[in-house]
Write a structure and sequence with these properties.
Order of helices and strands: HHHEHEEHH
Radius of gyration: 18 Å
Number of strands: 3
Strand order of the largest sheet: 1-3-2
Strand content: 15-25%
Shape: elongated
Number of helices: 6
Length: 138
């Protein structure tokens, strides 16, 4: 991971998310995408925007396009939204991709994805949850 990116993040990534959390998140996103016919990037960004980590900054209007382009180069979860406009500047929410999330932050995203999947009647139970319902071997 590029350490300079993490220095920009407004939180401590001491308890970084696990690979299994990441894989599970993308599994749910894929199932939702299949069901509703929306690309995975849109689903991912929607949940980051609604439940993820962001900072709010002010930036000169003439600098915004270059900043936005550079921010997006960190990954698909790194994006910006303009929330207010003043004479010569924008107020911008800058969203961080889940590659920088800790376990509690990624859990918020996973919980929101699980809730959406359940509303769509998609089974997103984990391996551990599924094994609870299996008949024990005789």
């Amino acid at each position: 991971m590029n350490k300079s990116i993490c220095k920009q993040c407004p939180y401590n990534i001491k308890n970084k998310k696990t690979n299994s959390q990441n894989a599970y998140m993308w599994e749910i996103i894929s199932k939702i995408s299949e069901k509703i016919g929306t690309d995975i990037e849109t689903i991912y960004r929607t949940h980051i925007k609604d439940y993820g980590v962001f900072s709010t900054i002010s930036i000169k209007k003439e600098a915004y396009n270059d900043f936005d382009y550079g921010w997006h180069t960190h990954g698909i979860g790194w994006f910006t939204t303009i929330t207010d406009t003043y004479e010569d500047e924008f107020v911008v929410n800058v969203y961080y991709g889940t590659s920088t999330y800790n376990t509690s932050q990624i859990k918020r995203i996973i919980d929101s994805l699980r809730a959406e999947a359940e509303r769509l009647d998609i089974d997103v139970s984990t391996y551990e949850e599924r094994s609870l319902y299996k008949e024990p071997a005789k």
